[in-house]
Amino acid sequence: MLSICIPAYTYVDYTVEAVSVLLKEPEDFEIVAVEDFDLVAADPDMARRIAHARELFGSDPRIVWRRNGEPRPIQDNWNFTVDLASRPYVKLMGADDRICPGGVSKILTMIRSAPTVHFHGHLARIIDGDGHIVRLQRPYVRSRACHRTGSNDALRLKLRQIARFKEPACNLFTKDAWRRVSGYSRQYRFCFDIDFNIKVMREHDCCLWNEYVVDLRRHARSDGATLPPDLALDELRQLIDDIYRFLGTTSTPSDRASGEAWLTYRLIELGVARYRHSPRRMLEFLAANLRKVDLSFSTLARVTGLLARRACFNDVQRTLP
């Protein structure tokens, strides 16, 4: 029923940890691991660690393992990994993330509880580079264990940053849905996962679960920590405009104010995440990008509310230590 896909790239030790933790789960599921370890500068110690990783990949029949013959763009690598999955439901995880104890059982319960749903979102515990829990993600809807939505309603919740679907490791989708939206697109370099989420949400019912299923690692070597923050802001602008276009004539002034508040909040969050140890650089980043956001009263009121809610739950993204 379930394939857990890990496009490992060059994270040798993290991948060993992620796969080892998954192998402790007793359920029937598939692990798909695709790695680029041949790109790592292999001194004798690293060569030994790579050999150990590949020995682990061959140690259990639940593991489907591939070595990339050549480097691929990240979107192509993710699509290649998902394409190898043989089960109808797919969970894509970063090699630097890991499943929580009992996480696979929780996922299977979600699937059985909503068999017609093609897209599920759940929560994560945030961990640091050493694997220590830093905080818990804020619940989606505090009043109940699951919220079901879809189509324009889901897009509006996305604009309000309620149906966030968070990082890819916090998602579960059917392989059929992945095929229908043509997988992850190269149109975006930073926000291609949000683009994928929006397309799936628009066409399928989805569920938001207040269950902690994965440990999501924040560290300075991650892709999101190294790409220019302006890129995320520019791509998010395009995605918000896409949602307005999808909503068409049903779009309301409130929808647009919510979208502009999302963009303005993200500008502040990116500045804090990247430059909180350098107030001067933070102010320079904010000033350079202010022209991209709406500073009307209605937008700023929503940004204030969003900031308050995130701060209350310590849910402000922190990419760097």
Q: Into which percent range does the helicity of residues fall? A: 40-55%
> Approximately what portion of the residues adopt beta-strand conformation?
15-25%
Task: Please state the average pLDDT score.
Answer: 89
Question: What is the fold-level CATH name, i.e. the topology of the largest domain?
Answer: Spore Coat Polysaccharide Biosynthesis Protein SpsA, Chain A
User: For the terminal residues, how far apart are their CA atoms?
Assistant: 37 Å
What is the number of beta strands? 10
Q: Give the total of domains.
A: 2
- Taking all Cα atoms into account, the compactness measure Rg is 20 Å
Low-confidence stretches: 317-321
| CATH class group of the largest domain | Alpha Beta
Shape: globular
**Largest sheet features:** 10 strands, mixed
For the record, the CATH architecture of the largest domain stands as Alpha-Beta Complex
CATH superfamily of the largest domain: Spore Coat Polysaccharide Biosynthesis Protein SpsA, Chain A
SS summary, helix count: 12
Structural class: alpha/beta
Order of helices and strands: EHEHEHEEHEEEHEHHEHHHHH
